[in-house]
Amino acid sequence: MLVDVKCLNCSSDLSYEPGTTTLICAHCEHEMEIEHASVKRAANEELDLDAYLDNFSECHEQIEALTVQCDSCGAATEFGSEVKATHCAFCDTPLVLSRMENHKRVKPQGIIPFQIKRDEAIRHFGVWVKKLSLAPNDLKKHAGKAERFQGIYIPYWTYDCDTVTDYLGQKGTNYQESVTVTKADGSTETKSEHKTRWVYVSGSVAQNFDDVLIPATRSVEKELLHKLEPWNLARIVDYNDHYLQGYQAETYQVNIKEGYVDAKIRMQERIKETIEREIGGDKQIISESQSVYSNATFKHLILPIWVSSYRYKNKVYQVLVNAQTGEVNGEYPKSPFKVAFAALMVLGMAAAIVYCYEQIGK
Ligand SMILES: [Zn+2]
Ligand SMILES: [Zn+2]
User: What rounded mean pLDDT belongs to the chain?
Assistant: First the structure.
């Protein structure tokens, strides 16, 4: 059961104060220090993946929490005390709070507590929105409302893994060749042509991965979340209920097995780069590669994000703010007028360039 500590002074709800190790009373400002706030025992412990792959939820410690599920997007969100949300943070659909019930879920090993307060997050959003040249002018009014920004801990998996990859491919080296062509009038002309010489190559690369971060949510696009990186994972501390007071936490929807599949895709992107570097030359082709993964370990973490889901002309868009670093990323509508104007500008520029060339040619 989520510990719900009340103010010792006035019994009001306490919420976690970003960037500190204290809970604070919104009513009388009484502060309470969180015990063992900076312990990093479980947070640093890597669990052997093979041992948990098929039965993670059974063999890991469970906690019970008041959770409500969104009918529209399916996100299951746990509410800390002091949370007044009435709409789903991810899709802006009204939540039926009367349907809130106690749900068991796996206790995360580590947490990065909120570092950035709501008003700072909105400030970062304001800077971001100013740089969007194609967004409608009234976007800030729609998305930037303070009450829209909800503080949520998003579930993640991280994987460590050793890999060895055998590959077959080709290495291309560029060179120039002089070619003599005979024209229709019988005269000859020598031209230099760019060509590539290919040789077959094979080899093996070893690469060790540390903390490959995979979102365990389906409520936010993976790409949106990846663009909030990097996280400073050195700042992770042991999970503690108190950090959730005043915030929401989403239950994971991507299980440990599915997360590992995603992690392999991310690892393969980096392995491909390593192989291409090893092949060398000017161009590379990888025709076949086979990876062996070993010593895989994992951790289950929750990371803090401010989410604003807003409707614009009946479509829902999400803006996210990394509540550790202030990095902003989001979706936004493109103003048809501004898009058309930008296209006209490009056409205008092209016409101007053509005109200049013609003038020079005369
Ligand atoms: Zn109080
Ligand atoms: Zn929803």
Answer: 87
